[in-house]
Amino acid sequence: MKAHMLSNAVHRPFLGFARAGFMLAGAFLLTASACSSDDGGGGGGGADASVTGGADASAGAPDAQPSAAACTPVAGFGDLGDLGVAGGEIGSPADPLAVAAPVVGTYFAVELWDGLAPFENGLANGTFEITGDQLDYNLCGACAIVFAQGDGTTADTVYSAQSGTITVTSFEGNFTGTFTPAAGPTQYVGFVGDDLVRDDSCTVTGGGASWDLAIPAAAQ
């Protein structure tokens, strides 16, 4: 089971730059929050905004109790260009090699999980279509995701890409690759709460990304 890095839950580790916590997440969220205060939504973000889910489900009932199943919505975003942070480990089934960058209010990441398809025999260069098990955040080994942290009235939500291609070209010195949408913005579907339950009413759309980053010594 995956457990995301902003929680002490014991489900599958989310964005496992470290199982105990990805400390740069706070900086991502602060940076993204600052970007969201700029008019126009910031470079590359906001133009494709398409979000549904539990954000205003109780708008007519202010005294309603928070729903643990309500996803935390995020804004849509455009192409991200070069991602800025790499972390995790090569060869660890509990701590994926990952790259990330802030998007409006949250952050986007690509995770490669050693031991999960298509990396049953270890991480390797190649072109990996997001289809089949790769559509489910609980099962994907090559994952393109967006994370939204809950605020007490909504649950932590991992939005997992439902199409596109992850291409990895190097693990030697630098970790390089791209995430390319299939056609137009990619749709991401939410996996909600500590149990990462898929909720098809929680969606966001986003663009592509690339990376060429030194692999931290601790990750090798």
Structure description:
It is a single chain. With 220 residues, this protein is mainly β. The protein has one helix and eleven strands. The protein has one helix at 25-36; strands spanning 85-87, 97-103, 106-112, 126-129, 142-148, 157-161, 165-170, 174-180, 186-192, 197-206, 209-214. The strands form two sheets. It has a seven-stranded antiparallel sheet. Strands 4-7-8-11 form a four-stranded antiparallel sheet, with no helix packed on it. The radius of gyration is 16 Å and the shape is globular.
Q: Provide mean pLDDT, rounded.
A: 74
Order of helices and strands: HEEEEEEEEEEE
- Percent in helix: under 10%
> How many strand units?
11
Short characterization:
This protein is mostly beta strands and 220 residues long. The chain contains 1 helix and 11 strands, in the order αβββββββββββ.
